[in-house]
Amino acid sequence: MSEEKSNSMNKYQLKKLIKKLEGIRGRNTELVSLYIPAGYDMSKISDFVTSEASEAESIKSKHTRKNVQGALEKIARKVSEEHETPENGVVLFAGNVSETEGRPDIQIWEVHPPQTIESRRYRCDKEFVLEPLKQMIVDDRVYGLIVLDKNEAAIGYLQGSSIKTEYKMSSEVPGKTRAGGQSAQRFARIRKQMLKTFMKDINDNAKTAFLEKAREGKLLGILVGGPGWTKDKFVDEYMHQELKDELIDVKSLNYSGEEALEELVEKAEESLQDASAVKEKNLVESFFENLKEENGKSEYGLKQVIKAMDMGAVDTVLISEDFNHYRATYICGNEHEKEVYEEEAKISENVKCDECGEQMDLEQMTDIVDIMDEKAEQMGSSLELISTDHEQGRRLYNMGGIAAILRYRIR
């Protein structure tokens, strides 16, 4: 697996875990979060956890005391297994996930973060401390977007697959029809001055939005677009030189307001071939184009995509980041096995064996993305995770969340 793909998968898995942990709430301050930096003395962590478990004896509520101590016991066991911290440190979350008071279900999660943990952090609260991990899955590098004409402008970012608006602006530059009593020359001077002021305002907002990022090396480039000549005048006469040094393309557009930011990204595809939004959009559009042409080179739906993958027919499998399906593996007392593919919330522990009718035990749950990633490796296929932050990603999700572009027709 390439390093880029591995990082993408790791971030996906961490993002999914964070979403799961966000949904857990304690009845009281009973959810434990522990961040351990790389190189930290694990014996000191062990002593600290033991001390916290001892202090938990003073918690008045019996249920809360039991849940906190249960969480700390799980963490203590995990810490005792670690002789040294992983390269970037480790994060441990533990707490009661049961919805029935008095019948605790203490779970623990161990996270090896993609970036270094700088300091030790401990908290026992009604929710887990997740913000440090959230910051690690955000790629803060952006493309700057500026769209304008003489009447309106918008400034925004392309960050990963998301287009975000930072400023929306409207000018007071009048049309060419002048008010009664004004000479043509005076009216032209007024329009010119008002346009100049508007251009300067756009530049000031662009500096606020992009200069610091440019100086920190977090600006990948700037795109400017809009209808008519105003965009070129802005670039030539008003754009700050440091921002002009970051300029990678100027495009003619049909619009100039906030809705034009997406049009600008679409028109500048060749300049943004490495931008994930463009890559994802092109892949999803290729899938839908095949579907429209009925050429047999598109499949969608979990069963159909797995079948095509097993046949070696898949060139690229597309999976929505919001596709929350798992493969549940069951086994009964007679060692009969059964696999069920379903959304996480719909996976049942009450399953009967089709062969002998006995109750089956849920042995394992595996994320579909992990399954498809392994199959893709075996079959020489590509796997792309598609965000729902853009229209094409939402179209894919609405089609079921998983699809494939095929190498050849299979039916």
TrEMBL record:
This is Peptide chain release factor subunit 1. It is found in: Cytoplasm. Directs the termination of nascent peptide synthesis (translation) in response to the termination codons UAA, UAG and UGA. The gene is eRF1. InterPro entries: eFR1_2_sf, eRF1_1_sf, eRF1_2, eRF1_3, eRF1_Pelota-like_N, Peptide_chain-rel_aRF1, Peptide_chain-rel_eRF1/aRF1, Ribosomal_eL30-like_sf. It comes from Candidatus Nanohalococcus occultus. Heterodimer of two subunits, one of which binds GTP. Keywords: Cytoplasm, Protein biosynthesis. The keyword Ribosomal protein does not apply. Its main location: cytoplasm. Belongs to the eukaryotic release factor 1 family. NCBIfam families: aRF1_eRF1. It comes from the Archaea. Residues 4-138 form the eRF1/Pelota-like N-terminal domain.
